[in-house]
Amino acid sequence: MCGIFGYIGDKEALPFLLEGLKKLEYRGYDSAGIATLHKGKLFVTKCVGKISELETTLQKKPIGGEVGIGHTRWATHGQPSHVNSHPHEDCKSELVVVHNGIIENYLELRRELADRGHDFRSSTDTEVLAHLIEEKYAGNLLLAVREALLLVRGSYALAVISENDPQKIVAARSGSPLIIGHGEEESFLSSDIPAMLKYTSRITQLENGEMAEITATETRIYDQHGKSLAKTPSLISWDPESAEKGGYSHFMLKEIHEQPSAIRKTIEGRVEADSHKIHFDELNLTEEEIRKVNRVVFTACGTSWHAGLVGEYLFEQLAKLPTEVEYAAEFRYRSPIIDENTLVIAITQSGETADTLAAVWEAKARNAKTIAICNVTGSTIAREAHGVVYTNAGPEIGVASTKAFTTQLTIIYLLAILFGKRRGAISEKEATSLISDLISLPQKVERVLQGESLIETVADTFRSATNALYLGRGKGFPIALEGALKLKEVSYIHAEGYPAAEMKHGPIALIDKNMPVVVLAFSGRRYEKTLGNIEEVKARGGRVIVVASEGDKQIASQADEVIYIPQTSEALSPLLAVIPLQILAYYIAVKRGCHVDQPRNLAKSVTVE
Ligand code: M6R
To answer: Of 316, 307, 322, 429, nearest to 374 (Cα)?
Structure first.
């Protein structure tokens, strides 16, 4: 939440800052601001709204300078307004701070600072940082920031520039991500890697507790005690193109279409082509440890939690392991009964979700083995877990998660087979057949995508709905939840996902001719029962849109609309069935004029509790 971008070099900072902030806009977009240092003087421009507003303001009145920091905000403390936008200044307007995170003791600090004569302009928690640094400044900006941070509780990624020390950016991290990019005669600072991929692929991740003093040609990193640290930058292999829209109108649509190749990349290197053997060296678990696992707990938030729900079905079915799924925010505050034989699998696209990170810490504190299924290389959760399995989906920029979800499911499917084999729950032959099904999946995903225009037509009949119900049984239930979440977040239509059998226990009261009901009725042992649910909806005048398996002739007479997906095993059907629901949500949102890639109130990475 909130994006930070910084530039220091031999060129004008403004274009880099605007470009960087546009790429980070998915992290928050209620207001934005930029500060530059030009000939030793600070210039600050901010405004409410998206980066395009800021850009328009800056076109009218550009600010110069070869050093600058920018911020795109997702409000936590203080409503979106000009005064609450970052950067925040000290009393003398000599230094500015941009911040991502929450300063938990800000009220107490603010009171003390105000008593000492500091003049506050905003109602944000961040402003206390500017005043604390002002107070601590005695000729060394880095030192002033460090001393200020000693007084602060909470989470932060922050960047500071000052007229008193104009040739540097000081940055610090505790909780929220911050990455330094090393170019030729220029350095960058960013909340994520894709925002600076265009300029450099040589990066240094700041770890929690670390601070950096960044000049155009040099970066010095220190620990919280001020000890200098020698860190070697890493090279990122993501191609800069992958963080662009590539001709699609939205990142969400591009990312939906990237799913066949993303799934292929996720399988590649993990499954031997001839023998179909699975390799997961990155699990960091010995054969013995795998065999000893007697319980699996998936923990995650949002879409990743839905992937965990599918994981529960798959691990129970294929690995015969007792499995639970926990919302990360609940898991961390309960007293979970886990021990060294419990495997806690944290699922996270970003690897930065605050609650999921805290859940990993909780699991580690209770001696459980932890694995992260993660998309972002080197992210905090990827580094905190004992083992990390990357989804290889490439950067996911659209706020609504799509390719991250299907690649998470791909990994979970492979892990369930691996554990099933090691535990003797499935035979070699069964495993081989399950893997063959997976290898043919990307082609089937391509076929689902070919049906896009039909789904767009279905979206037409749905666009003015105010409520929708999604029903599924078995592994169709998490997909019903995911379909409903996709619709809610991008189109603002209220939608609920339910296990189809639960409909009679309440939701059926809602059904009338205005209520579209999306039913997942792919082949499998629950198919007949699902047909029964469709009849119940139709009998009450509901409008039924069914996702069914190709070859199902019967369904067309029962449903108002049918979207067919290719035949696949029941275990893999969630991976195919979710795609029409992503496309449906996308087109409904577009037809309603919604801002698909940046839905209101949302942010891509939720780095605060
Ligand atoms: O980065 P993570 O996978 O940890 O994010 C978890 C959720 O915030 C995320 O899945 C969210 O629900 C998406 N916006 C859903 O599309």
So the answer is: 307
Which atom number of ligand 1 is nearest to the Cα of residue 381?
Answer: 4
- Are 527 and 572 found together in one domain? yes
The DSSP string of 312-338 is HHHIIIII---EEEEEHHHHTTS----
The rounded Å distance from CA 155 to ligand 1 centre is: 20
- Residue located nearest, by CA, to atom 4 of ligand 1: 348
Tell me, what's the pLDDT at 499? Answer: 93
Q: Whose CA is nearest to atom 8 of ligand 1?
A: 302
Pair (71, 96) in one structural domain: yes
Catalytic (active site) residue 553: no
Q: Is-contact 471 498, C-beta < 8 A?
A: yes
Query: Does the C-beta of 530 come closer than 6 Å to ligand 1?
Result: no
Indicate if 23 and 72 belong to the same structural domain.
yes
Q: Determine the distance separating the centroid of ligand 1 and the alpha carbon of 395, expressed in angstroms.
A: 14
> Is the same domain home to 207 and 107?
yes
Q: Are strands 219-222 and 211-214 parallel, antiparallel or unpaired?
A: antiparallel
Ligand 1 probe mutation, 304, 384, 396, most atoms within 8 A of CB: 304
Question: Quick check: is 594 catalytic?
Answer: no
The CATH number that applies at residue 312 is: 3.40.50.10490
- Mean pLDDT of the region 298-322: 97
User: Can you tell me which atom of ligand 1 is nearest the CA of 604?
Assistant: 14
The verdict on the CB of residue 302 being under 6 Å from ligand 1 is yes
The answer to whether residues 34 and 69 touch, using CB atoms and an 8 Å cutoff, is yes
pLDDT digits (tens, 9 = 90+) for 155-168: 899 999 999 999 99
State how far the Cα of 146 lies from the Cα of 144, in Å rounded to an integer: 5
The response to whether residue 356 sits with its C-beta less than 6 Å from ligand 1 reads: yes
pLDDT tens-place string over residues 102-141 = 898 999 999 999 999 999 999 899 999 999 999 999 999 9
What is the tally of structural domains in the chain? 3
Q: Which atom of ligand 1 is nearest to the CA of 602?
A: 14
pTM score, whole prediction: 0.79
- Supply the pLDDT for residue 241: 67
Which residue owns the Cα nearest ligand 1 atom 7? 302
The DSSP bridge partners found for residue 370 are: 344
The verdict on residue 557 lying in a domain is yes
Domain that includes residue 457, residue range: 444-603
Q: In angstroms, rounded to a whole number, what is the distance separating the alpha carbons of residues 233 and 239?
A: 18
Q: 389 or 240, which is more confident?
A: 389
- d(CA 107, CA 533) in angstroms, rounded, equals 54
Beta sheet of 41-48, edge-to-edge order = 41-48, 31-38, 67-73, 3-9, 186-190, 179-182, 202-205, 234-235
